[in-house]
Design goal:
The chain is mainly beta. Helices cover 10% and strands 35% of the residues. It contains two helices and 13 strands; from the N terminus they run αβββββββββββαββ. The strands form two sheets. Strands 1, 3, 4, 6, 9, 10, 11 and 13 form an eight-stranded antiparallel sheet that branches. A five-stranded antiparallel sheet has the order 2-5-12-7-8, with no helix packed on it. Strand 9 and strand 10 form a beta hairpin. The radius of gyration is 18 Å and the shape is globular. The relative contact order is 0.25.
């Protein structure tokens, strides 16, 4: 095999292995955290400034219970990327396509779980561990970095199709409103909440009202067509 052909094959393999947003067009990346302020966020169901969140050295963080945050903008089909690290026994989550019609965002929005899988109390089932669709779809073991190290999360939602990625590995993919989804929903704690997972365009959320430390940085999103 000549050198040119070998280089073409290597390049093709690298492109195939890289995470892609899927078919269709993607808009430009938009920051949801500029490292200096929470201007893109507010407290859930309130215009009050978020409580107990701090910003330092380009990182937003909380230690202990804090306000639940929601994005000021709503998104339907999107690709979201961010970096996060969790404190010991920490528990949090990223919500998407959420509404403020209910008491809490998790009544409507699916959750990408952020967790210390080793010491958090909520680690007994794989659908409660980091990268899972909380209480619905399991996340495989072996892809979460140790407490105190930065993880990279990517969430892709296009219509009914949703993917959860962690550190370059696809943890979960599922189809909203499919028979499989309905089975998982019926077995979950969300089965009696009629709007859960039904909203096609909504807010992102960051869970603050759980114990433990959480830090986030480099939050950005682009809309998909």
């Amino acid at each position: 095999m000549n050198r040119f052909v070998l280089l073409v094959l290597i390049a093709g393999a690298a492109v195939a292995a890289a995470p892609q947003a899927g078919p269709g067009k993607a808009g430009p990346w938009k920051p949801l955290f500029d490292g200096k302020s929470l201007a893109a966020w507010r407290t859930y169901k309130s215009d009050a400034p978020p409580e107990k969140w701090e910003i330092k050295d380009g990182v937003m963080s909380k230690d202990g219970n804090a306000s639940d945050l929601v994005s000021k903008e709503e998104f339907g089909d999107f690709e979201l990327e961010l970096e996060w690290k969790i404190g010991e026994a920490g528990n949090s989550g990223i919500f998407y396509r959420g509404s403020e019609d209910e008491e809490a965002i998790y009544w409507t929005a699916p959750e990408y779980q952020l967790l210390d899988d080793i010491k958090a109390r909520d680690n007994r089932t794989r659908n409660h561990c980091a990268g899972s669709v909380y209480d619905l779809y399991d996340a495989p073991e072996g892809h979460l970095k140790p407490v105190g190290e930065w993880n990279t999360t990517r969430i892709v939602a296009r219509g009914a199709h949703v993917e959860h990625w962690l550190n370059g590995f696809k943890m979960v993919e599922y189809e909203l409103w499919s028979p499989d989804w309905e089975r998982h929903l019926a077995a979950s704690k969300f089965k009696d909440w009629p709007k859960y997972g039904r909203i096609k365009k909504g807010h992102f959320g960051i869970q603050g009202n759980h114990p433990g430390a959480l830090s986030l940085r480099n939050i950005r999103v682009r809309e998909l067509q």
